[in-house]
Write a sequence for this structure.
DNA sequence: ATTAACATGTAAACGGTTACATGATTTC
DNA sequence: GAAATCATGTAACCGTTTACATGTTAAT
């Protein structure tokens, strides 16, 4: 029966997937099979805007199986144990229902902006140092994403590639913003 | 004595401020006096990239006072109790030390991107719906930030205003990205 | 009178990270 | 033979949100 519902029977009904359940179901639909797989897929794709750790993934796989949204089957690789999961009908419906609803979570935590905010107007050097650090960060993330992009050629309109492009472009925009503002502070401060 | 250090005496030594301690100390330096003030300041400034709830602020004020980084004084408004806090020397040094170190926290959680990623390449309408929702979100946040900007006129190079400008520009960039990609999908899909 | 704003706080639940623990297989 | 990778899991901790609880004062 579905999770988190005071439900009457084994029928599918509207339920709220936990944040981790969303990424687990999505990654299973996307081709991942084991918990290890899911972690690896996440790290190479959604990590920069939606991460997941083993500490979340394995317990969530159990919960989702208990709720009947996925089914696991033991498939060892030699003597190395391995459980392969796949979506059930309920699981596929739950995923589709979530995908069809409006997104609600948009969260940002940026320590550089916080530091910038607390930097006094009379200390442009401190502000420039923070801007430089933030710029470097976005340049590094952008570089990592471009590496991934170079490895996976594909249809340009595929949403997977669109999201990767977003990461590359958003980080480039942020890096250029930092460059611009730092130049502004440096230029007017010393020139 | 400073918090979170197996320290020997009352002297200041390097300590790691908790995430909430940073925003509390910063807001006290920035002019906030009470816990209520801190919450109000946060909601009108750093909220879009660094939030704080009462459930964090009040316990943190106690911890920081116990650690000697701030000092509170009872200052009731009529019969309404009120505690005003101010930074101690140690508190000011701890804030300065944190401000001078490299920022490390850059976190993003975007449910729209996650949905986009899981949307099949053959379902452009679903992708467009997600893009539209994300665009609307950024337009709304941008509008709210512009309202705040209109209320607080000031020196354009003040980091406080720089950060607000960042919020406005970043949300505008994101909205325009969504518009562009949705148009691309719609144009090629039906044209 | 009523509502908004001022003001402080706690408890439970939730979600996530990190460290730890274990072991097999493949590649160098 | 060592290191990287595959593979699964738990426990403790950390940080945050939400709901609850209480009371005052100012504005309409």
């Amino acid at each position: 029966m579905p999770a988190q519902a005071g439900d009457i029977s084994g029928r599918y009904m509207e339920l709220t997937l936990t944040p981790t359940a969303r990424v687990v179901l999505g990654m299973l639909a996307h081709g991942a099979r084991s918990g290890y797989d899911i972690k690896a897929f996440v790290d190479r794709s959604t990590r920069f805007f939606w991460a997941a750790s083993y500490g979340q993934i394995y317990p969530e796989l159990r919960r989702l199986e208990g709720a009947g949204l996925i089914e696991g089957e033991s498939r060892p690789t030699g003597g190395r144990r391995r459980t392969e999961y796949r979506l059930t009908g309920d699981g596929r419906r739950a995923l589709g229902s979530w995908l069809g609803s409006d997104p609600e979570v948009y969260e940002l935590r940026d320590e550089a902006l916080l530091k910038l905010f607390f930097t006094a107007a009379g200390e442009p050097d401190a502000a420039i140092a923070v801007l430089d650090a933030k710029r470097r960060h976005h340049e590094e993330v952008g570089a990592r994403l471009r590496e991934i992009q170079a490895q996976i050629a594909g249809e340009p309109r595929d949403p997977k590639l669109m999201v990767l492009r977003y990461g590359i472009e958003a980080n480039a925009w942020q890096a250029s913003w930092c460059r611009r503002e730092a130049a502004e502070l440096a230029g007017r401060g010393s020139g």
Remarks:
- Helices of chain B lie at 19-29, 35-44, 54-66, 89-100, 111-118, 124-151, 159-190.
- The first helix of chain B runs from residue 19 to 29.
